[in-house]
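re the bet — no i am not wrong, look at it urself. input seq straight from the record:
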Amino acid sequence: MNLKEIIENRNSNFETVIKTFEETILPEVQLKINSGRFHRMSSKLTSELLPTNQRNLTDARTRIGTLLEYQFAFELNNLIKDKYLLSEYDVGFVLANQYPDLVIRNEFHEVVLRIEMKSIQGISEEKSANFDALIRNIEKETDLLCTILWEWEETEEKVAGVEFPKISKIYLFDAYEIAKIRDYGWLKNTTSSIGNKIIDVSGVYVPVSDTVYKQEEGNIGKLLRVSTVAENNLEANRYEIFKKEVQLFGIQQIVKKLVRLNFDEEVVFDSSQYDNTDVQKIYDISNEKLNLLILAGNRRSKTKINTISKEKLTEKNIDSTYVVIMNEKFDWTLFEVTKNSILKINEGNKPQTLYEKVATLF
């Protein structure tokens, strides 16, 4: 693979640049970060708790994201030079503290690629990573949007109870195309009866009255809120897959923690895909004391809950089971289902309250 040629020909085939980096180069960067010195330098004891109030917790996640960004640049720079023999290329930081975060320069110090970095912790209830760059500041067929999905994981150290921010996957998109998708989707989803939303060269605005506008409050670019309804192309389809994977990954982390907190070593844990709009994945957890199904999907789909639960009752030859259905925002509802009834027991909007409620079922 001639990486230099791929980068230099980006104007005629930017999709090849994205595919090459996402499928070949970034998995290697991910492996280097997860297994190299970073995982020791960023590790902590599980007893060293992060802040629980939202503001300070967000600050902690921002710091972790910054550290991941620095290590990403370091490993990408080494990989480009050592494996792909582009000694004349350098990955550098944008020092102005504005869009974008990173640049790749050639031997003449010219910028050949620009990278905007975002990071998302899977278990975060409100994933605040925000791609808010105005489209006038984005260079077509040069700018990339890179998102790191991570979660705490215990290391294989001699000392138990040591964890580090492990990368689950690194996603890469055409920044210009995602900005268009973001803006068109936001404009199309107009619900105000006062007037139309506005995006111009100076910024993004929403109506206060028929004649007065104010600047949008910074939600337009939140990565998991970007709507692709106004576009139907390759990048929009890839972005929808990204959103779904991030949402399901978060629920998976919550399920794993719930098992770790509430079940003994004899637990039977199984997960399966369920290709449906209302329910995308099923987690089946059981031991001698408790049967529990956790469904990733739409909390209001009572019919689907009933159907899946009855199938499991028949399959396991049991009389009842508890069922939790959880949506992408981690809002959850707990039911008890028998062969003849479905009873709502409780609901909440935080993983912690779910952990506590399940503990009372034993």
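see?? Residues 3-177 form one domain. told u. also The chain has a mean pLDDT of 88. so pay up
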